[in-house]
Design goal:
0% strand, mainly alpha, globular
């Protein structure tokens, strides 16, 4: 078995191959997180509205998305949407739209749990002050729900960052794709994939540690 040689991986190689992919992975994570939380919160409010016309579509969407692997949704969108609209939207846009749509289902359940964790007394207090349903949610319930769910939301974001490696299958230039190209072009494929695994581990472990620290601070505030 040949010895591993990591000397090929220089700062110039990182800039030329990996940096662009890392930027896209981080951008995809940030955009999908924000979009997922926004649409997920709307889905959560629809499910908690008590109105069947709003609740049923939200339930079908959330349960449907959570029952299908992300990889399958990614491939369906990348391959089928161009057939429907008559043109390709590109691997990057396919990844962004797919991740927002998919993650909204998971963030929806997190936000629904966060909203339901708020004591009913808080709701009644807002109503007693003459607040409408929307005002109560905006000013009283949602701020507390976001604070309570912040560690879980950040944990889901870390999982989302790990899942960005799946866009490699549709040739989007993410961090894993950058390492792969570097390894193929410089004839160090094994070393490149090992370095990719180390990079994902370091980033995700560091973020997980920060989430734990934040969770402790939130616990003290409570």
């Amino acid at each position: 078995m040949a010895e591993l040689d990591f000397s090929f991986f220089t700062l110039e190689v990182f800039r030329s191959y990996v940096l662009k992919g890392l930027y896209f992975s981080v951008t995809l994570t940030a955009v999908a997180t924000v979009g997922g939380i926004v649409f997920g919160t709307l889905l959560a409010l629809m499910r908690l509205s008590g109105i069947k016309a709003l609740e049923l579509p939200a339930v079908i969407y959330v349960n449907g998305m959570r029952s299908v692997p992300l990889l399958m949704v990614l491939l369906w969108f990348f391959l089928l949407v161009p057939m429907l609209i008559g043109r390709s939207i590109g691997a990057e846009w396919s990844a962004i739209i797919t991740f927002i749509a998919f993650e909204a289902a998971y963030f929806s359940e997190i936000m629904r749990a966060g909203i339901q964790s708020i004591p009913r007394g808080q709701v009644f207090a807002g109503q007693a002050m003459g607040m409408s349903y929307g005002q109560n949610m905006k000013l009283v319930i949602l701020p507390q729900a976001f604070r309570n769910m912040l560690p879980i939301l950040l944990t889901q974001t870390i999982i989302l960052f790990q899942d960005t490696s799946l866009v490699y299958i549709i040739t989007a230039h993410d961090m894993l794709h950058g390492f792969s190209i570097a390894g193929a072009n410089l004839s160090h494929t094994r070393e490149a994939y090992i370095l990719a695994a180390v990079a994902y581990f370091v980033i995700c472990y560091s973020l997980s540690y920060l989430v734990k620290m934040l969770q402790k601070k939130i616990a003290i505030i409570r």
